[in-house]
């Protein structure tokens, strides 16, 4: 039974080969002689194997079942003959494509060994070519390569879809080998089924190379690799779009009712882009036979009507597409003179009628309507002029639409577009580009109402003596609830109201012939066909005062001139005063000096006032031409000097002769004093301390009464020369001479022998500072000294 089956299959294979040979190019060396002697002779004769390479035979799954096929690479100019032998020998026709020689399918027995012999002969070469192949058909079953492959990249993923043709029923899984472009290391990923495989963690910006092959199993013993497939980078960015729009008013070459739209775009990684997909659709949703365009350029020119459109662009390559970038073209709802006569009447909340000029030759129309914030609705219709309309020569065409899907609302403004199309057979939009022209635009209400709000931002500007300007912003369309017919302006003065009607196209008005210096109140309102709306809040203003007369102008000029003159005099005196200080500085006043400021004013007056001559006569040695400096009684110390009396001569011409005053035998009455402790740390310590005591009066005026505690030391002649007044600054000179006397005393010299005498001619501030330094450097030298505390009296 098995032998019969084998013979049957061989016969069937030869029969099929015969049929196939009828339509394929058969290369043969001559008659098909499969005898062993002939094959051995050919093998010995054709010992050259260079004309045949990569010879292989395998079993393929085809519709009729398992069939064998052999392939090899050879020369185009060579004629080849294929002998197959499986118990019996047979010749198989072969054909060539792209230097690949392939045999026709032939039947084999799976478990029997099969041998294939290829003989090649050429007129150019004297020797022939020989090569053979041997194998068991059950081990030669081949699945793949794939018959079709598609892939897509997205977010770092690469999805591969594979179709295996007749092998799809035998392949359970397949492998995908991939690598980055221009690298050598391959990676592998096995699929979970026979159709799809997902590659993860790919770099989006890099291209990849991949190959596929099935996973070998019993039914697919051989799984050859497919050719290398290049996968481009992933397109991750969306194109950037720009629009340039022109209409008939801007470019006369454009037909009225149409717009020229130039769409331009850019893509960052344009090298990875194969082409671009541009989609243009109406916002109303009306479809077109062609609304998508594939282009390799980066711009597209469109001729569109005045409807609203959406344009979307995406970049494409074999790995997928980029994100979509969209841009909207708004409908042109502004009136154009090029529009034809077109009116709309909403007859109910679900019906409306259209009227337009019958001179239009088109028969295909499209009407769109919408309210603000709504998606437009549309209706296509065919309208051919009737014979009656032609004979009566009617000037307009009318059509009424009714649909339960239409729902018009009161107090809402609706916009209508009427488009004409140049088609005759059907009114469907065949091409979105240059397919229709806008004929007319109309606006209407189902029911109008009065405005529910007043004009806003009312302002009063440019107020003069007899006029002012009012400005305002219009009422919004939602609050207007009808077609604006104008504005009312109410002007009130002293409860007398006057109204003005203003056109709807203006937003300002000038009030004239007003009274000067008068208060006014203004209100505004808008009105439609349904009536007047709300009034605005009152705005108050006062006109300017009357203009100045000539006399008032002169008076004002005089007042201003006087003010300017006074200011000039004031600033001139200040400048002169500063110049005087700068050019003629004032002589310093000794009374304001820091050296003398500690002398009490009362003591200064006491020093300068003449003492009572009778009291001076009681003290011997003091006459009217001298000044007695009386020292208070102190306890003597080894370092102290006796009190002295300085005689200051009033005669400036008399020589300064020192004169000693001898104390009398019977001393005069001298007031008893208590010792005064002087603070030498203060400024001008020596003189200030001596002047802090005032001359006290005698306690007893009785001549017979003597004052106790009086000694010979109370009055001692001075050994210093008399002081001569050299200038009007008498007090300063007295201060200087007294200072010199105190400095040159024996007690001071004993303590500070290195001190240098201060001359009267030196600056008194320097002298005061010099005395302060003495006190600071040797405060202990005066601790046990009876400092001369004198009282100076000018006679």
UniProtKB/TrEMBL annotation:
Keywords: Disulfide bond, Glycoprotein, Membrane, Receptor, Repeat, Signal, Transmembrane, Transmembrane helix. One of its GO terms (molecular function) is cytokine receptor activity. Residues 633-672 are annotated as: Disordered. Residues 637-648 have a biased composition (Low complexity). The chain crosses the membrane at residues 554-573. Residues 1-28 form the signal peptide. InterPro entries: FN3_dom, FN3_sf, Ig-like_fold, Type-I_Cytokine_Rcpt. Residues 454-546 form the Fibronectin type-III domain. SMART domains: FN3. GO terms for cellular component: external side of plasma membrane; receptor complex. Gene3D superfamilies: Immunoglobulins (2.60.40.10). Pfam families: fn3. It comes from the Eukaryota. PANTHER family: CYTOKINE RECEPTOR, FIBRONECTIN TYPE-III DOMAIN-CONTAINING PROTEIN. This is Fibronectin type-III domain-containing protein. It comes from Cyprinus carpio carpio.
């Amino acid at each position: 039974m098995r032998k019969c089956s084998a013979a049957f299959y061989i016969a069937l294979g030869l029969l099929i080969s015969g049929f196939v040979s009828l339509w394929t190019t058969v290369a043969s060396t001559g008659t098909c002689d499969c005898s062993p002697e002939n094959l051995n002779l050919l093998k010995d004769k054709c010992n050259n194997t260079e004309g045949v390479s990569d010879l292989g035979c395998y079993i393929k799954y085809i519709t009729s079942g398992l069939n064998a096929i052999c392939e090899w690479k050879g020369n185009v100019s060579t004629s080849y003959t294929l002998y197959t032998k499986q118990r019996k020998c047979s010749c198989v026709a072969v054909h060539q494509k792209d230097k690949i020689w392939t045999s026709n399918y032939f039947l084999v027995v799976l478990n029997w060994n099969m041998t294939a012999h290829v003989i090649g002969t050429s007129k150019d070469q004297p020797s022939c070519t020989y090569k053979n192949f041997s194998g068991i058909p059950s081990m030669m079953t081949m699945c793949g390569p794939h018959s079709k492959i598609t892939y897509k990249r997205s977010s770092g993923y690469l999805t591969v879809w594979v179709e295996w043709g007749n092998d799809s029923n035998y392949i359970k899984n397949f492998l995908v080998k991939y690598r980055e472009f221009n690298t050598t290391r391959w990676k592998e990923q096995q699929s979970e089924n026979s159709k799809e495989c997902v590659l993860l963690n790919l770099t989006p910006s890099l291209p990849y190379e991949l190959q596929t092959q099935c996973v070998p199993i019993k039914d697919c013993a051989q799984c050859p690799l497919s050719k290398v497939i290049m996968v481009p980078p992933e397109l991750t960015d969306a194109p950037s779009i720009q629009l340039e729009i022109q209409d008939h008013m801007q470019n006369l070459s454009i037909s009225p009712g149409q717009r020229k739209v130039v769409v331009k775009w850019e893509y960052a990684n344009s090298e990875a882009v194969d082409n671009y997909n541009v989609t243009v659709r109406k916002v109303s949703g009306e479809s077109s036979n062609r609304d998508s365009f594939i282009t390799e350029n980066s711009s597209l020119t469109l001729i569109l009507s005045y409807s609203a459109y959406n344009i979307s662009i995406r970049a494409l390559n074999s790995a997928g597409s980029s994100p979509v970038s969209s841009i909207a073209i708004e409908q042109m709802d502004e009136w154009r003179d090029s529009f034809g006569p077109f009116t709309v009447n909403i007859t109910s909340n679900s019906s409306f009628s259209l009227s337009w000029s019958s001179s239009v030759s088109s028969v295909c129309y499209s009407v769109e309507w919408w309210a603000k914030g709504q998606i437009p609705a549309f209706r296509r219709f065919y309208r051919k002029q009737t014979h009656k309309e032609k004979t009566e020569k009617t000037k307009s065409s009318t059509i009424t639409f009714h649909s339960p899907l239409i729902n018009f609302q009161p107090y809402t403004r609706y916009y209508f577009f009427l488009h004409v199309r140049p088609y005759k057979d059907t009114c469907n939009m065949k091409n979105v580009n240059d397919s229709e022209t806008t004929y007319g635009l109309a606006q209407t209400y189902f029911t109008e109402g009065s405005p529910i709000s007043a004009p806003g931002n009312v302002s009063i500007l440019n107020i003069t003596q007899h006029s002012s300007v009012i400005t305002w912003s219009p009422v919004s369309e939602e609050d207007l609830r009808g077609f604006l017919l104008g504005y009312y302006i109410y002007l009130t003065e002293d409860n007398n109201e006057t109204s003005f009607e203003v056109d709807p196209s203006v937003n300002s008005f000038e009030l004239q012939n007003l009274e000067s210096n008068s208060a006014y109140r203004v209100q505004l309102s808008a009105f439609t066909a349904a009536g007047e709306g709300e009034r605005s809040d009152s705005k108050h203003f006062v006109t300017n005062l009357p203009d100045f007369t000539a006399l008032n102008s002169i008076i004002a000029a005089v007042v201003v001139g006087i003010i300017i003159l006074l200011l000039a005099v004031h600033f001139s005196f200040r400048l002169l005063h500063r110049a005087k200080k700068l050019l003629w500085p004032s002589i310093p006043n000794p009374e304001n000096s820091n050296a003398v400021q500690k002398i009490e004013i009362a003591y200064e007056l006491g020093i300068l006032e003449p003492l009572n001559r009778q009291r001076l006569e009681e003290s011997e040695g003091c006459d009217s031409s001298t000044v007695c400096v009386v020292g208070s009684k102190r306890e003597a110390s080894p370092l102290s000097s006796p009190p002295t009396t300085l005689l200051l001569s009033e005669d400036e011409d008399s020589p300064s002769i020192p004169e000693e005053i001898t104390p009398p035998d019977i001393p005069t009455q001298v007031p008893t004093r208590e010792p005064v402790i002087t603070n030498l740390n203060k400024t001008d310590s020596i003189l200030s301390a001596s002047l802090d005591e005032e001359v006290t009066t005698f306690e007893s005026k009785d001549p017979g009464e003597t004052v106790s505690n009086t000694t010979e030391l109370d009055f001692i002649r001075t050994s210093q020369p008399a002081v001569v007044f050299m200038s009007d600054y008498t007090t300063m000179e007295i201060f200087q001479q007294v200072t010199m006397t105190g400095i040159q005393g024996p007690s001071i010299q004993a303590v500070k022998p290195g001190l240098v005498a201060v001359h009267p001619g030196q600056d008194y501030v320097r002298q005061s500072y010099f005395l302060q330094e003495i006190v600071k450097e040797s405060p202990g030298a005066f601790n046990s000294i009876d400092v001369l505390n004198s009282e100076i009296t000018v006679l």
